[in-house]
Amino acid sequence: MEAQLTAFLEKIKEENEIQTKTITENICAKIDEKLRPLQEENEKLKSEVQTLQTKVNILEKEIRKNNLILHKVAETEKSDKELLELVLETLNKLSANADLEKWDVWEISKAHRLGKKGDKIRPILITLTLSWRKLEILRNNKKINSGIFATEDFPKEILTKRRELKEKMEEEIKNGKVAYIRYDKLIVKEATNEKRKRSPTQSPKIMPGGSESIPTRAFNKQPSKKNKVDGFTLMHPNKKQ
Length: 241
What we know:
Layout: H1 2-64, E1 67-71, H2 80-97, E2 108-113, E3 124-128, H3 131-139, H4 141-144, E4 149-152, H5 156-174, E5 178-182, E6 185-189, E7 205-206, E8 212-213, H6 231-235
Antiparallel strand pairs: 1-3, 1-4, 2-3, 5-6, 7-8
């Protein structure tokens, strides 16, 4: 009797486990079915947000492409007009030190100080009308030889990324490689000190009368006619021609 009761209880337990498993699977399947459209919508929204962020980054980069930041320019101006005159004077001094062309006022679209006024000298953000003038100043920063220097106007996240890449760049340079940062990417190349040697060319010799002799190697050698055998002899070796 006890054995039958034990077997009965075991059977009930197994059926309960099977039933519980079936119910759980059904519930999970229904939940997945309900959540699937939400997951698909979520993935779609993520993709759209990423696309919009890319467009925003491109737009921001385009807006800042003619911007230039001047550092260490003393705050002596009292109005926007005086600031513009100060910027023009500063750019002309920098250009004179680097032997560059003189600046005109129309080449500066706008200028303003960054941050709140305090003990430190605030940098000046200027927008130029010509992109090549900005590059001209940046490329000649080392020739300026003054406390004033210019930098590009990067977004905050790009500045953070560039600081992180700077350490890696210095490591690559120590390892003997050519490394530099282009916007938010680190470019690393193998250093090549060897210059490609040009193969020596043979000059044509001047023959009597002023004519030039052409080297014989310029022509293909003609096959030798010695021991030439015609087809008839090969086909009939015992017959004489």
